[in-house]
Amino acid sequence: MRLQLEVWRQDHANDPGRFERYQVDEAGAEMSVLELLDMLNAQLVDEGREPVAFDHDCREGICGSCGVMVEGRPHGPVDYTPSCLQRLRSFSDGDTVRIEPFRSEAFPVLRDLVVDRSGLDRIIASGGYVSTPTNAATEALTMPVNRNEADQAMDFAACIGCGACVAACPNAAAQLFTGAKVAHMASLPQGQVERAERVRAMVDTMETDFGSCTNMGECEPACPADIPLRVIAELNREYRKALWQHRRTEEPDRRGIRWLSRLRTGPWWQSDPDERPPGGG
Asked: Each residue of 29-54: pLDDT tens digit?
């Protein structure tokens, strides 16, 4: 199958960029978009030209590293499918395929098809985790979790953080991503202690770098993990509840949770001399 490719080329972050046209003569219907780029790069290298830069890693739809716009759609023409699993069977011999980086002000282009998605990392760093004492973690099997809650948490945890939801959104909103992370933690007993603090911090960080959700619904079909739109409603409920608790000072006092308060003050024996390990330390 012969395909004409229009690929975005940009030498660096400050370069205005441009589309360049290429031809690939032996593309197979079962090849992925990334394999198509591999074939193109092999041609460019043979010709002594600069290959196209693009992100990739596992190529199994798990890592979330890959992500390009194909014909104006995040990842490609097939819904709920990452770039690495988008097959060329959607195109016919002689078609022109336009490939460009995720288009969003929140994801500035670094080079060619590579964008800076560190804004998502900042959301996670602000609270997308569970604090636990690393030297005294409780055995997981000692904390029972309802089967329905566990299944729900696993569904939310399926988010691979690719950023397609942001690229698909006309507002460049990250509510689907943030909602999946918040709902995942809120569904499990391990996430209850920092529940209110977590959602406030994550939403505040999200609103610094990303736009606001206006319920366009473009994010859901672009998501390779099939994260449902209802996580945005979950996020809104969690955020409103957290703000109410904060104003009424009803949220748990971290200082009353001994091991959690110690995490912010260094090794536990430095902040709690009554629990100094035998033999000093």
From this structure: 999 999 999 999 999 999 999 999 99
CA atoms in the 13 A half-sphere facing the CB of 124: 13
CATH number of the domain within which 167 lies: 1.10.1060.10
Domain that holds residue 36: 3-115
- Specify the pLDDT at position 137: 63
**pTM of the shown model:** 0.85
Question: Which conformational region is residue 17 in: left (phi greater than 0), alpha (psi within -120 to 50 degrees), or beta?
Answer: left
Question: What single letter denotes the amino acid at residue 221?
Answer: P
Q: Hunting for tokens 């202690």 — which residue is that?
A: 193
Identify whether the C-beta of residue 30 lies closer than 8 Å to the C-beta of residue 49: no
Query: Can you tell me the distance from the alpha carbon of 245 to that of 146, in angstroms, rounded to the nearest whole number?
Result: 26
Query: Bridge partners of 114?
Result: 111
pLDDT along the chain (281 residues), means of 10: 97 96 95 97 97 95 94 96 96 96 94 97 93 68 82 94 96 96 91 90 94 93 95 95 80 51 42 44 44
Token pair, residue 258, equals 């001994």
Counted residue by residue, the chain has a size of 281
- Do 236 and 204 lie in one domain? The reply is yes
Q: Which residue, among 168, 245, 241, 163, has the nearest Cα to 206 in the 3D structure? A: 163
User: Residue 251 in 3-state DSSP?
Assistant: coil
